[in-house]
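Deliverable D5.2: sample structural annotation.
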Amino acid sequence: MPVSDPVADMLTRIRNALIVKRESVEMPSSKMKLAVAQILQKEGYIKNFDVAENQVGSTLKITLKYGPDGTSVISGLRKISKPGLRIYARKEEVPMVLNGLGIAIISTSKGLITDAEARKNNVGGEVIAYVW
């Protein structure tokens, strides 16, 4: 079944897997989802991700990360843009999530980057998601 917003579907699958304390979650892969997974791994929100090639397409498997007491490292995931309503931030208006405790994933001309990297590179773009 086709999905109208693949990144929102990805974040929902991760959120649902965290609720039921699953070790990993699988979903169809795409370049955008891989970029989001790379950012989540680099920032320490997930343990690992892997892409498995199938006959029809590829599958992205994300290994989730939990603390020593079993609580999720990710407290919240929120997709900001909607297919018909996109939120853009100029370089001066790049959002800061929870005063820097979380990250904003931003789509720029330099690819998907975090809000801190966008400020460092002095670029703006479409706000994709908040993670905290």
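Annotation notes: The radius of gyration is 15 Å. The chain has a mean pLDDT of 94.
The annotation will be released with the project's public dataset once the embargo ends.
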